[in-house]
Amino acid sequence: MQSRTTTTVMLGVAQTLAWASSYYLPAVLASAIGKDIGISVSTVFGAFSMALLVAAGVGPVAGQLIDRLGGRPVLVASNVVFAAGLATLSQATHASHVFAAWALMGLAMGSGLYEAAFATVVRLYGQDARRVITGITLFAGFASTVGWPLTAYLEGTMGWRGACLAWAALHMLLGLPLNMLLPRVFRTDPAPKEATGIETGVGAGLAPAPQRRAAFLMAYVFAVTWFISTAMAAHLPELLLASGTTLAAAVGIAALVGPAQVVGRVIEFTFLKRAHPLLSARLATLAHPLAALCLGLLGTSAAVAFAVLHGLGNGILTIAIGTLPLMIFGAEGYGQRQGFLMVPARVVQAGAPFLFGMAVERWGDGALWFSAMLGLSACLALVIMTADMRKAPLVAAAH
């Protein structure tokens, strides 16, 4: 059996490639694509938003396939579809071609990003997958750090079409072989048990109605945190400008979010490794509201603290998306359940830049109070889930 460290590295590198060539691609190429084809930049981002909606629909199906067959065939197929989507985009001459290319990319994103990677390692390692999930996010946390400069370099040397073809080639020459080398699982393989012999999560002790409530609460938390994360990614420099910082300072401070996310994942990997994911997630959901409070009370002098706190929380929450369903519901059926839990998150992610943009246009940096309240509501949902989990053994004992 392949070592977990090897699996972590391979999936980490493959995920870095997948995120850099999809989620982080429009930020660099949208302007060039729009100018060359004769469409607006907002149209290009509209195609990207459609890809996120396609990914939401594909996620549960991909997860179910991973539950049955393991992650290797699904992730390998995603590399092929990523390459096809990027190659199609490179040949676009009309808006419809851009939408068709991003539809293909949406299929690949729904079967080849974090949720699929998390489901893959849960299928391999069961309840022991938490550290592997954290390790994967440590690698892929550098996707924008690697992807944006590399995409900009490729566009500068061979144009945006050549950049898309280069990313397509990387999927076939790097991503596909890495995913091909993942351990193979068979349809009849049982989900691996934890060292304690427990392979079900604590939520398995709940009656059906509380189980459904836990699932709805978890889906709400994921949707809220992805909305906040995507909204900040799109509007953070603008928010900092509205709070009184200079343009140069706003761009520099916003750039701190990425490294802070990685630091948050390191904290999860070290200091919080023995903490229950519910505790980690509750702490992480409070980071953005606390950051907004600092900026609201202290003004521009707290701008750096805002970016760092937001990044720390966002980094830990990325891991919680993978570990919470595992710890609450167990390894059985993880992939399909994860796909369904992430559908609302993908949908709100597609609309977050537009919706939060309206809030910024109307309220300026006061829009942060809106996102802060959303963060607090996510924390409240996790508190309710924690109370339900404490009741779980009593319910199980009654049966």
TrEMBL record:
Keywords: Cell membrane, Membrane, Transmembrane, Transmembrane helix. GO terms for molecular function: transmembrane transporter activity. Pfam families: MFS_1 (PF07690). The chain crosses the membrane at residues 44-62, 74-93, 99-125, 132-154, 160-182, 214-234, 240-262, 283-309, 315-334, 366-385. One of its GO terms (cellular component) is plasma membrane. It is a multi-pass membrane protein. Residues 7-390 form the Major facilitator superfamily (MFS) profile domain. It is found in: Cell membrane. PANTHER family: CHLORAMPHENICOL EFFLUX PUMP RV0191, PURINE EFFLUX PUMP PBUE. This is MFS family permease. The lineage of its organism: Bacteria, Pseudomonadati, Pseudomonadota, Betaproteobacteria, Burkholderiales.
